[in-house]
Design a protein that fits this description.
Elements: E1 6-10, E2 15-20, H1 26-31, E3 35-41, E4 48-55, H2 59-66, H3 78-86, H4 108-114, H5 119-138, H6 149-162, H7 172-183, H8 186-192, E5 198-202, E6 206-207, E7 213-214, E8 217-219, E9 223-227, H9 234-243, H10 252-265, H11 268-280, H12 294-312
Parallel strand pairs: 5-9
Antiparallel strand pairs: 1-2, 2-4, 3-4, 6-7, 8-9
Helix pairs in contact: 4-5, 6-11, 7-9, 9-10, 10-11
Length: about 325
Amino acid sequence: MADDSIKLVNYSDKSIALFGNTKKIKEKLKILGGKYNKNLKYPENGNKATGWIFPIKKKELILNELSINIKDKYRKNNENIKKNVEKPEKSIVKPQKNIIKQNKELSGLNIALKEGLSKELALKYNNYYLKKIKIQETGRSTTTKDSSRSKVYNAESKFRTKFPETVEKMSEEQVINFFNNVINSKIYKELSNNNYPRLIIKDIIKNSKLKGKYAAGQATQSYVELSRDCGLQKATILHELSHTCGNPHHDIKFREDQIKLVKEFFGNKYALELNRCYKNNKLKTKVIDKIMEPQEWLKNYEKITNARSKIKK
């Protein structure tokens, strides 16, 4: 049943937003790929508001998962409002092929069983299927651990050694100007869904995720902190701003967004080198849309299994 206290709006040409009483469903909104933002504005009057931002391509998914009737007075297209208010069921469409549903008929397990895989192989395929769905929706392969962090730091260290100019210390005025230049750029607005984090410069930063060790910087969705001692540099700023694009950890989407920012503000050769450093550390840098069908996955699985068997012998 629809929750009239939650409003769905077309926030920009590339994004939609949810406003209202979303506290009870915040975990579900995270799973659906939403990004909580305290600095949104109502499109109608420009008043500041808190809400959740989604890419506009997820509109039908949100409608389907939350069963929201669009009754939002903020939308400008009155004809669309009328259609969705009077006949909300017509706004609910079937999800895309690669969007996971709780319905068992659409699960990877049942798809594999229908394709003739054994139960054991179907379970393995389902694990692969769910992992790919997770990556597509969030850019993350896990839900809790920041398993890629040390490899990312190592790759970045190699990149910065080759391009020391990216870590040259700047004055606070230069840092502020560069930071504002990035967050007001078209590429950052696209990657972050119009996020607008604030900058905080501190004498010392102790990162709780690093067991209290000193850090050059740290970030949340709403702010970036930089250390006066070792964080006033462009590479650190781009790293932390990549986190504010909805990437709290160092997963594939973080690396993909970071490379795009590096390309924009350093240049193509820098982006290619950072990408190479990540790949040398066996880290992927692009979220792949394709999910293999069971038979294709089976051939790949058997190929890998046979290769491992030969190594053991």
